[in-house]
Every structure is written in structure tokens, then in C-alpha cells.
Design goal:
It is a single chain. The chain is an alpha+beta fold. It is built from 5 helices and 4 strands; from the N terminus they run E-H-E-E-H-H-E-H-H. It has a 4-stranded antiparallel sheet, with helices on both faces. It starts with 8 loop residues before the first strand and ends in a 9-residue tail after the last helix.
Length: 171
Amino acid sequence: MTASPHPAAHLAQLNVATLLHPFDDPRIAPFVEMLDPVNAAADGTPGFVWRLVEEGEADATGLRPAGENVIVNLSVWENQEALWDFAYRSGHLEVMRRRREWFERHVEAHLVLWWIPAGHIPTVTEALERLADLRAHGPSPRAFTFASSYSAAEAAEDHAAALPAPPAARP
């Protein structure tokens, strides 16, 4: 058996949502009521690896690294298919269908995907940097979307190409 030229990779995803109302407003309550069941479904989905959770809490909605009225969702999946299946073929789809009730329409990218080495847990800072990269430069192997995806191999090649060349050997 030949070893893969690329180490095992997982897919990280960040999405941000700007609340239309404060999180404790009754108009947001239907969304809040869906959080536990949707998060439990994610945790039990084949291919799910990890999700950001605020210490001592069941989710990350209390974290506001992107602004006071912006909630973040950061997770890691074994592959893009597992994330797609959860996002669009599970109870999560109901949240997606109703998002305009609770969140502003984004005029710029609000979801970013990127490949990470298996076992790596991305930080919120890393995730926000990937989102900023996508917003500034468009999709690339470094930061992409479902509609403009790249493989883990393409991301590894892009990363290798960005590394400085080794110093020339001396005679």
C-alpha cells in the first residue's frame, strides 16, 4: 500500500449570521428553540468531527468575535459531502429556510470552507481570517464555498507553492 502524498485532511467551515434582533428577543426564540436539536443532529451525523462550543455552554451563540450582533458557527467535518448532507439533507434545512426571519441578508460572503490537517482544531481567529481572505480575494484553495470548492489535494498543492523555496545548495 502506498502512502498518500497528502496527509489526511478534514474540512473546516465557518458561517456568520447577523441577528435582526437581540438574541434574547422573542422574535429570535424559534431559532433558539431549534439550536439544541440541530446541534445534537450535527453531533450525531456521520462525518462530523467537532464544533465550537462556548465553555460551559451547549453552543457558541454567546461568543461574538465578529461583532456584537453577529453569531458564529465553526465546525470540522471529515469531508465536504458529510457537511453538505447535514446542511441540506437534515433538520438543519428548516433553519436555513427560515433564516430571513432571524438574520440579515449578507451582501458579502458569510460562509467559508477550508481544508485543515486531520486532528487540527481551528481557532476563531483562523476562521475569521479565512472568511476575510474569501471576501477580499474570492474563492481559492485557501478559502472557498460549496459553489466554488477545491479538493484537499488542491489546497495542499497551493500551500506547498506558497512556501518559500529552499536555499540553493552550495558547491
